[in-house]
Amino acid sequence: MSDLPKVSFSKLSEPSNGVAVLLAGEKAALGPIGKALDDSSGGALSRAVKTAEFTGKSKSFLDVIAPANLSLDRVLVVGTGDAAKLTDLDWQNLGGAISARLANGAQTATVVMELADGTSPGEQAAALLGVGAKLSAYRFDRYKKKKKSDDDKPKTPPRNVVVATDGHTAARKAFARLDAVSDGTLLARDLVNEPANVLSPEEFAKRAKALSSLGVDVTVLDEKEMRRLKMNALLAVGQGSARESRLVVMRWNGLGKASKKKPVVFVGKGVVFDTGGISIKPAAGMEDMKGDMAGAACVVGLMHALAARKAKVNAVGVIGLVENMPDGLAQRPGDIVTSMSGQTIEVINTDAEGRLVLADALTYVQKKFKPGFIVDLATLTGAIIVALGHEYAGMFANDDDLAAQLTAAGEATGEKVWRMPLGAEYDKMIDSRFADIKNTGGRFAGSITAAQFLKRFVDDETPWAHLDIAGTGMASPKTDVSKTWASGFGVGLLDRLVADNYEG
């Protein structure tokens, strides 16, 4: 991971060195500090605004290099449009856009959080702008050879981003909480971006174990322990791999172990590489299947976030870690396995493996923890990409309240979900002639029948939601705050779900 900028906060004042970033509202209106800098430069800023026909449109930029009579290297004027209409998410995205624009190796950039009327937009906006600047600067380049020539070197973000604002102490405090979540998101990105030859199930479990330093209680179950628990569905997926499967259980007791509140539970699919098994995938694009563990990565990132910000909640994260390979021991189409729940599963297609992993994990968390709710995440089906593209995750739920909470959290964080249907008609499509259930319902409604499969392993009394993140967790579109292949989708969404509805 590339060096990230250090984000700090200071009193609202006129910058004296490095790069000054000024906010400009409608009609390119500057605040008092911006006007003072313009006066000191002999009107250089206002002339640049006029020459470039800069209007202050949201996320528009005007660069003024080495303005006369100022000790600044550069002044970057950033349009906000009507700042009164900007949401929290808009401020975060603006921070990301500024960071990307500043990617030229600048040492220090000071963002002057001042509107045209001289007021600051608030400590939350300032904190979110800092978070956006940090998230945008993330790159996964640990395996790239360092460039020797300056011409070949990639542009880097500023080493220091100073956010100058009224209420800077409160902004610093708000940032500390949000930064815990951003660190969880970056952890998830790192995990998804890692190549599968590095991130085996054992190595993944080792990295999850590192959360112990934050106070998370982490237990790793090996294959012997899973056999004892009769997790035959999960184990069947990994039996063709030379690398053993693992189940990792992470517990954050923010309310204390004595709390009588039911824990909130998150389950992640962690297929570290998916060849499809005997039902092997086409070669083209198979390298992307290193990301088939994005659900598990999100759960690890979320547990980091909750622990790092000392969330007042008891939460459990469980991830099933396997590798789906087609050797002589691999499961075959037509095999029947008995899940931990006792239900038998006919394996029609070995490339519909994630649901087998989740089936046993879902049974485990219900028996072990009696959860208040369960949310599972998985890069489960290509069908969800056909339905929703890369903009929304598919959401399936047996509980309207939980679904509404997830929808609201997604709108607030920009990690959006769209509710998809469940129903008895779809459930019939996964009835098996030879077992209790088969692992695929055929070509049509593929994401729905996958969710119906999972629903059979969830008690009707337990609120449950399944998030199919195949389109958002890997090969995700570039945004103001995510520039790499892995977005870390879900960490901010689920942290917001907890913060808004389940803490205290």
TrEMBL record:
Coiled coil: none
Note on cofactor: Binds 2 manganese ions per subunit.
Cytosol aminopeptidase domain: residues covered: 349-356
Ligand binding (Mn(2+) 1): 274, 351, 353
EC class of the enzyme, as a word: hydrolase
Keyword Metal-binding recorded: yes
This protein's encoding gene: pepA
Entry annotated with the keyword Transcription regulation: no
Binding site for Mn(2+) 2: 269, 274, 292, 353
Protein's name according to its UniProt entry: Probable cytosol aminopeptidase
Organism, scientific name: Microbaculum marinisediminis
Record-stated family: Belongs to the peptidase M17 family.
